[in-house]
Design goal:
The structure is a homodimer.
Chain A (H helix, E strand, L loop, with lengths): L2 E6 L6 H13 L4 E7 L13 H10 L4 E5 L1 H4 L3 H14 L4 E6 L6 H7 L12 H15 L6 H15 L5 E6 L19 H10 L10 H9 L5 H14 L2 H5 L8 H12 L5 H8 L6 H12 L4 H9 L3 E6 L1 H11 L6 E2 L4 H5 L3 H14 L10 E2 L1
Parallel strand pairs in A: 1-2, 1-4, 2-3, 4-5, 6-7, 6-8
Antiparallel strand pairs in A: 3-6
């Protein structure tokens, strides 16, 4: 039986994701599909529109067999680090094939990874001006333009795979229609970018029913949809009451950013919005996404040691499964080196899952739903 | 010319306060009336219903000549410490008489202070069970019941006065009508307790027009009225993202309270209210007010050294004055040992006024009005 992995955010689960799951089933009819999904805070430094339990349920009910959470320490990160955290889990779970969308499915990602093996990033100071330099270096080495976001992510998977002993067969699938950053819901296609769907859902101006499975439409309609607008008062308060020494301890806080972050906010006054503040603190060196990631790290009070602990002590947090996923899990369980967390105890919350637990506490302030204690995986 | 002092919170300025000011004018017709008023966080561990600028303006327009802010380090404290902070400022400003309301104006507060000189409190662990023991000790020594809140406060003024060299003549004025903790607006009297007025104003169920001067009624109608309901999300977030070591650094956090505070909150889930949480963490030893004061200290991230700094480096922060008040200020200015702060510079915000500045930043998140930069005293 094929064991196929997908790395994703499902923010939220839309028709493009469904198309991908169905494509996997077409190509690998007997496959068990394992998804590593970001939790409540995401790669571009923002809260998820719906909580991880809701999104995991959407995935399972749309054909995914097992959903595992990517620890937040890896979620709010640049592509290489994000990919490494996810693939490490997939490897442990016996995944053999990785399916991912790419703007150019004809690229040989494995080869590109081999060629660019010696291009390294300093992930503790992740910043986009580095990202640009990185893209240029890759293009110089491979002759291929990887500036498109899904191609770049594909390369990140390929590089992580190489690092982890090339356990995966890489299966890029041509992305349909929507460009990653399209802000409009297309009229002629049922596939839209996740970000266009979020915009529409958050502003409640347009129906997203044509662009997401029914279940997602209901979740977006009935559930608590969250964004930085909700968490901004907490972040603002945190920055205003922290001193610069405390801010300096936050993961990714380099080159005196703590002064800039605090000073700009105090000067801008109490009515400032999240976007206005980010626009004020970003720069050529520290781009929008760099700053939103740091903003998330401040919000979660994530320090260097919090991230390092997760790097050093991996675990597998189960969010949902169906029978097929459960059977697979049972079949690999005895060989697993990483602890499996299905229910969170006090002890696990205080140790192994410390940062995820804290992120869940913060997220639950607005989602209204507990994220850990008392929650068990969704079972279909 | 008489220089008369009043120590108050004006939360908000009501008919009882107006009666007191008019009573001073009747007894001391030429007096300059100087008020030391708490800022945006108050003795019982709660945010002020209206910001300090609004309340200072109410005071000046109702006949007070000069309003000086009591630093927050002294505001959110038991009576003795509160009184000491306030009287230290009044002494510096040349005040000779202290007027205060008492349930029993016939008490000889100065004598009671003399008799109880050796009854001490440990103010760094202020707690109400101490408070009860303290009241009993006082009653044993003086034969007088000081359990009524204004009598007890009067004794605190008398004790602070004794400590500061008995510079003041104490002038208790019989309190009219409303008991301090009455929760109903009385129909037959135009004087109500501040707490009944706040309740009515916050819930917008009843008009307070009969119980406050016109200006206060307008302020309550048009201004932003704040309570713990507003600040609770910030406090909750702070507790959830702080670890116990960080909580332990907060002023007044003793005997492992940090564990209790954090643990109860996590167990109660995201929907818990401020009052529910306080009810859960309070105990016989740590009463409601003890816990709301600690809650305020956490909200403001006030540490021991923040409080000590203000104790050691007093200052006079001017919130408002009329001509008479300004003339008095000018006449004493040259002799003052404490720095006078009329406008807050970056330097003053970062040093002398650090804690007040931080409290202002927090308060302004909901009042919407800056509390420091760009603000100058109200002038009538």
């Amino acid at each position: 039986m094929d064991v196929v992995g997908i790395v994703t955010e499902y923010n939220p689960f839309h028709n493009g994701h469904l198309y991908q799951v169905n494509e996997v089933k077409k190509r690998f009819p007997d496959a068990v599909i394992i998804v590593v999904m970001s939790g409540n805070f995401l790669e571009r430094g923002e809260p998820a529109i719906l909580d991880k339990w809701t999104r995991a349920r959407e995935a399972i009910l749309n054909g995914v067999n097992l959903v595992v959470e990517l620890p937040v320490a890896f979620c709010v990160q640049p592509a290489d680090f994000f990919a490494f955290g996810a693939l490490r889990i997939l490897k442990e779970l016996g995944v053999q094939k990785l399916v991912f969308g790419a703007e150019n499915e004809e690229y040989n990602f494995a080869e590109m990874a081999e060629i660019t093996k010696r291009v390294h990033g300093n992930f503790s100071t992740y910043n986009e001006s580095y990202a640009k330099a990185y893209q240029r270096a890759i293009t110089e080495k491979t002759g291929v333009d990887v500036s498109k976001p899904n191609n770049l992510l594909g390369l990140a998977y390929a590089r992580a795979n190489l690092k982890l002993g090339s356990f995966l067969e890489l299966v890029p699938i041509q992305r349909r229609a929507a460009a990653h950053h399209d802000q409009q819901l297309p009229i002629t296609s049922r596939i839209a970018s996740a970000s266009a769907i979020r915009d529409a859902a958050l502003n409640r101006q347009e129906s997203v029913a044509n662009h997401v499975p029914h279940l997602t439409a209901v979740d977006l309609q009935q559930g608590k949809t969250l964004s930085w607008v909700d968490f901004w008062p907490l972040l603002k308060y945190q920055i205003l009451t922290s001193n610069v020494q405390e801010l300096r301890e936050i993961y990714g806080m380099t080159e005196g950013l703590e002064f800039r972050i605090k000073d700009k906010l105090e000067r801008m006054g109490p009515a400032v919005t999240f976007n206005d503040w980010i626009s004020e603190v970003k720069s050529k060196r520290f781009t929008y996404t760099h700053m939103t990631r740091i903003a998330t790290m401040i919000l979660l009070q994530a320090k260097n040691e919090d991230i390092e602990e997760v790097e050093q002590k991996p675990y597998i947090r189960i969010l949902g499964f169906d029978i097929k996923g459960q059977n697979h899990l049972n079949s690999v369980k005895k060989k697993l080196l990483f602890p499996v967390v299905s229910r969170v105890s006090q002890k696990v919350a205080a140790n192994l899952l410390k940062l995820d637990y804290r992120a869940g506490l913060v997220y639950s302030q607005f989602s209204g739903q507990r994220q850990d204690f008392g929650r068990s995986p969704f079972q279909q």
